[in-house]
């Protein structure tokens, strides 16, 4: 059994770290619990260009500064992979994979999203062997090589542009003939000579040489013809799924697994909150994540102190 806290924040991305700042500054005993490194998606983002007051900053730099800030008022930082949250009315029990558990008067779920898999043959076996979900982390391994990026959303286009700065060539595969990404990002993409967009195609199989990825087979959506691209790396960016398995039994998620919250970021379970990308919402950005974290922690503070 671990400690008990007023406020336990699950996930230390921008939403969770902001919740920790607001909770601890308000005087709540506060802890963040995280299964990876603090920073969330910031760690996978080369440059952040829409954080007000700073025109451009590396994601990892902002993550580092947020983390320093998040523990500056006494919030604890705990390592743990949460597998279940139990509701006991006035208190919640948070249980980790290793059997450690914590109690808290309020819990904020800020676990964000994880990248969706392509679900094609040979994909799983080659994760880390040429298939990567993080261009910022792994891009340097593909210097001077040819790679494929899958998806037509903001993530895929941004990562394709990041990779194009070091890879010899980037193939960008989209399943429709139009992008989903914002116009400004599409305009930026058009400036890259070494990015080739392949439209109306879907990936169908990963080929390896017994050791690492050597090619990607894709299918033409109209003709169903198959083609092979000889690439050393494959970066799927085909959307995201929320990390909420550990609260599913509480009935607080929508049909896609996103947390349903009210204006105070509270779920229908009193004292259980959601903040950031893990919530059902329209705009998933760092600024909206930190806003959620502040609102949730402030409401939890009011509830706990009976204000
Ligand atoms: P999106 O859901 O926005 O885009 C997913 C893309 O993958 C779409 O082009 C979709 O095609 C395609 N796709 C989905 N499934 C498959 C499949 N099985 N095979 C092939 N292609 C597939 O996800 P993102 O990760 O790009 O973005 C998630 C959220 O984060 C969005 O709200 C986005 O705006 C935001 N974001 C914002 C950024 C910014 O503002 N700078 C940066 C990165 C993300 P189709 O279009 O046909 O559905």
UniProtKB/TrEMBL annotation:
Record-linked InterPro entries: FAD/NAD-bd_sf, FAD/NAD-binding_dom, Ferredoxin-NADP_redctase_2, Pyr_nucl-diS_OxRdtase_2_AS, Thioredox_Rdtase
Enzyme class: oxidoreductase
Family annotation (Pfam families): Pyr_redox_2
PROSITE patterns (UniProt xref): PYRIDINE_REDOX_2
Cofactor: FAD
Domain FAD/NAD(P)-binding: 5-293
Complex and partners: Homodimer.
Family affiliation: Belongs to the class-II pyridine nucleotide-disulfide oxidoreductase family.
Protein name: Thioredoxin reductase
Native organism: Massilicoli timonensis
Lineage: Bacteria, Bacillati, Bacillota, Erysipelotrichia, Erysipelotrichales
